[in-house]
Amino acid sequence: MLKQGCAWLLTNMNGRSLNKPITSLVHFSTAPRAISGRWPPCATLDLPAECHQIAQKLRLEGADGNPAFLLLVLLMFINDTVITTSVVEQATMPKNRWNPDGEHISITPVEAGVNQILADLVLKPESMARSLELLITTSLLQRDKSVADSLHKYVLPADIRRTIEELDKARSVLGTWKPLNPQSPFTVERHVWGLVHSKLGMVLRFQGCFVDALTCLQQAVCSQSGLISRWETICELADVLTELDRPDEAMITIAKEQEVCTGDARLNPAGQRRLQLSLAEAFMRKELYEDAASIYRAANNGGSFAKLRTAIGLARVAHSQRKWDEAFDQWNHALKLLSNDFPRGDTHSGHTYLAILESTHHVLLMRGERDYAAQTQENIKEIRKTSDIRGCTNWIPGLNTYWLQSLHGDTLRARL
Questions:
Q1: What's the rounded Cα separation, in Å, for the pair 25 and 9?
Q2: Contact at 8 Å (CB) between 108 and 15?
Q3: What are phi and psi of 2, to 5 degrees?
Q4: For 153-212, what is each residue's pLDDT tens digit?
Q5: Using CA atoms, how far apart are residues 97 and 77, in angstroms rounded to an integer?
Q6: How many CB atoms neighbour CB 43 within 10 A?
Q7: Is 0.70 surpassed by the pTM of this model?
Q8: Domain 288-416 carries which CATH code?
Q9: By CB distance 3.0 to 4.6 Å, which of 26, 64, 155, 198 could disulfide with 220?
């Protein structure tokens, strides 16, 4: 039904004044239906029906449920990668949607803007913040400026600052946002509230403030109840629980989310892979190395971040099992992935790079290669001089915390 809802938005925005309220939502039926077997009915959330209810509530609250506003609501629900490729083809290729003969037809500027947003969300998942910003700057949002301003002033700049590691500024921006009326927030304000808490929880985890991160992420999960886009928040929550030495709770959290999503196509492959990687981290915390390794091997065909996290995970497994040659190869592989795929100087303030080098240093000591170990130690000292302690110290869950803490004692003993 998500595809039909998106198609309805695109069709009905053609030639319509953005200020004109919607009077008919024929495709937003409250009756659950399956579409081509790909979007089966959802027991907990029928997305178009939910959007229909939100549109009605927005109208009652004085905000016309115009197509742009409904598109924003859809984007808040689906977040980044859940829209399928077929939806993009339908939205961006005129012959598929508007002209069966494949002849060139003109597309209105509004349609072009929406098409670009939909394409970006599928082809470039990291462009969520830029896509929402595009919604605002192209004047697709004409109603309820308070919500538009909230997105523009708080969530988007904070997401950009998180990306470039200005984490203190991101915390400041996110920490100042509040609904206009906290006792009775607008519907979309509640979604913004959940997004703010999710981003703030992520920033706090990056900085190692795990207790505060846990509070934010728990609030975000409550605000995002039933949303198909909340897997990122669930993964962050599970990772923080594991950091706090509560891996059993992390595993329960992941299992519940997977149970909810099973069979209703609500979780895209990237989301499923990310949940599995968080589960693998919980296994690592419990020293269930083979269980973790099986997940890492299965996740090795993902994107750049999944491949990096998989390489680091397999390196830690081999390291923990004292398979020094395998560990050395995996740490080197992780270092190459980090340098090639995340070429931003000292990636994430240099702390991920440092953790990999310190792990490699320990492996070299255990293999008896003390000369190479000494050279690696000098590299570590130089990088540590330029690493920013205020930056992202905990990008990869577990790596710079309990993994390094356990490693330091072993390294000292190996030097004796």
A1: 10
A2: yes
A3: -65, -40
A4: 656 556 655 565 677 777 777 777 777 667 776 655 676 777 778 888 888 998 899 999
A5: 24
A6: 10
A7: no
A8: 1.25.40
A9: 198
